[in-house]
Write a structure and sequence with these properties.
0% helix, 4-stranded antiparallel sheet, mainly beta, 3-stranded antiparallel sheet
Length: 103
């Protein structure tokens, strides 16, 4: 709730993550850089689940006003996994231009 994350990579995550923003807010896009950090794209997360590889691509929260909550689903490096969860360890990374808006 209310987090404006600085530019970072999710070094403890394995594979792709899904993030969605909820609440009554304006702004707050997720800025995601290319793997070489030459260019970035701003993604509107409000009520839009979005998949990307935060371990490979730097990202940060843009300024926002209002009540902003984010939910982030990711796979950690521990052995095993959740029943029914597709295997993500060693999965091909998203291409440098690839992120998926799921809604």
């Amino acid at each position: 709730h209310g987090v404006q994350a600085r530019k970072h990579k999710d070094t403890s995550n394995v594979g792709r993550s899904i993030i969605v923003g909820i609440g009554n807010y304006t702004g707050g896009a997720l800025r995601v850089w290319e793997e070489d950090e030459s260019n970035s794209s701003d993604l509107n997360l409000l009520d839009r689940p979005t998949m990307f590889n935060g371990a490979l691509r730097a990202h940060e929260t843009q300024p926002f006003e209002g009540e902003r909550y984010t939910m982030i689903f990711y796979h950690g490096p521990r052995a095993g996994g959740c029943a029914g969860m597709p295997e993500m360890v060693g999965a091909a990374p998203l291409s440098s231009t690839d992120f998926i808006q799921l809604v």
